[in-house]
Amino acid sequence: MAKIAIMGLGVVGGGTADLLTENREKIRAACGEYLDLKYILDIRDMPESPYRDLIVHDIAAIADDPEVSVVAETIGGVRHAYEHTVRLLKAGKSVVSSNKQLVSEHGVELLALAKEHNCRYLFEASTGGGIPLIGPLSRDLSHNEITEISGILNGTTNYILTRMRDGGVGFETALAEAQQKGYAERDPSADVEGTDACRKISVLAATAFSKLIPPAKIHTEGITAIRQSDVSAAASVGAAVKLLGRAIRRGAECFVFVAPFFVPKTSPLSHVDGVYNAISVTGNYVGDVVFYGRGAGAKATASAVVADLCAAVSGAGPAPVWEAAEEGFPTEFGTFSCSRYLAFSGVDRNAVRVVFGDVEFISGAEGEVAFLTPQQTECECADGIARLSVGGGQLLSMIRVYEVGERPEA
Ligand code: HSE
Fold first, then answer.
1. By CB atoms within 10 Å of each CB, which of 41, 245, 270, 394 scores lowest?
2. pLDDT tens across 296-337, in order?
3. Which fold has domain 134-294?
4. Domains 2-126 and 333-401 alike in fold
5. Measured between alpha carbons, how far is 79 from 84 in angstroms, rounded to an integer?
6. Where exactly are the structural domains of the chain?
7. Closest C-alpha residue for ligand 1 atom 6
8. What is the pTM (predicted TM-score) of this model?
9. Cα angle for residues 390, 395, 396 (degrees, 5° grid)
10. Architecture, CATH, for domain 333-401
11. Among all residues, which ones are annotated catalytic?
């Protein structure tokens, strides 16, 4: 029997305790031994909780107990989570985490500490909620050159974009609906500004490339500027607007960023609606693999936490080491090339053709000129926008177009 602990009895910690209790026998079969929850660290007493007798307030109770071998960190945030994780790893206890912020900011150090102290630092639950992603990337697909990871990594924004399309409502109304349904926080900025997706693509890119790019160095755009007319324009060309986290390797180039995209119907990602997540991974032998499921929620995320608890207890799976990304990695975003949807007021089609060349005009909102540009880099596009602005044009929207890659041979 393995003695374990949970730090933080919030949504994910509570779901983890429930799963350990409800599926005790299934977990024993999976791990080869029972996982016995000995402590829960929380600042609250929680007298109503069924786990109240397990609650301790001092990390020393867990760190100094030689019986405890594995600890789940479901605290969130960095300060306490970081301090406790370092202390536990130095004591030789494995830590499994649902904390994308901690992994994306301190993953290099924490993985190195785990290796040094002969224990594990695992974080399946940090990205994609219940969807197994880190395990498949670091084990089943690790012999492939991963050329691309592109995914809908945030359920809140995907719900908002889905409502803007299906309900014909604007961003603010869709956000209010999401908050009413409990899909968005009262302060939704981490979701709608792309920060949450940024942390997740940082973790996925590091898992694929063994180099951690901290969130501060990842180009990140959210969805706050997206208008209902942009979503309709996308639909008019058979696409859906999706916020994507992307990590793309093209030869010596590597782009890692978060931004909204027009995703054509031919991509499975365009059909992922509501709060669901989906992540497409491309390997040089396996081709495209798409993972789909619940990216958040107590039960789904607890499933990923317990998968890691089992791996830590049984010693299964790889123990990766990451490097800090060197200067020049990822590639300067200004050189990223794609087609883009642009919507302007105060310009005519001739002016657009003179500046952007062979564009495809599409239906936009009244009084606007909307079009798809040919492939060009970020810098080239910014230059074109500046030239049209000098001529009196006003840019209303810019959304990149996702290019569906070649499918693997059947
Ligand atoms: N708000 C996040 C989401 C929660 O919607 O995906 C999981 O990170």
1. 394
2. 999 999 999 999 999 999 988 889 999 999 999 999 999 999
3. Dihydrodipicolinate Reductase; domain 2 (3.30.360)
4. no
5. 9
6. 2-126, 134-294, 333-401
7. 154
8. 0.97
9. 160
10. 2-Layer Sandwich (3.30)
11. 200
> Ligand 1 pocket, 296 CB below 6 A?
yes
Residue the block writes with tokens 């974080």: 123
135-185 per-position pLDDT tens digit: 999 999 999 999 999 999 999 999 999 999 999 999 999 999 999 999 999
Distance set, CA 74 to CA 41, 80, 258, 302 (Å): 10, 11, 25, 10
Does residue 303 have its Cβ closer than 6 Å to ligand 1?
A: no
Task: Specify burial of residue 295 (Cβ count, 10 A radius: 0-12, 13-18, 19+).
Answer: buried
How far apart are the C-alpha atoms of 40 and 62, rounded to whole Å? 9
What is the rounded CA–CA span in Å between residue 75 and residue 16?
A: 12
pLDDT of residue 100: 98
What is the residue whose two structure tokens read 């109240």?
Answer: 52
Instruction: Give every residue of the chain whose pLDDT is below 70, as ranges.
Output: 406-410
> Considering the domain 2-126 in this protein, what is its CATH number?
3.40.50.720
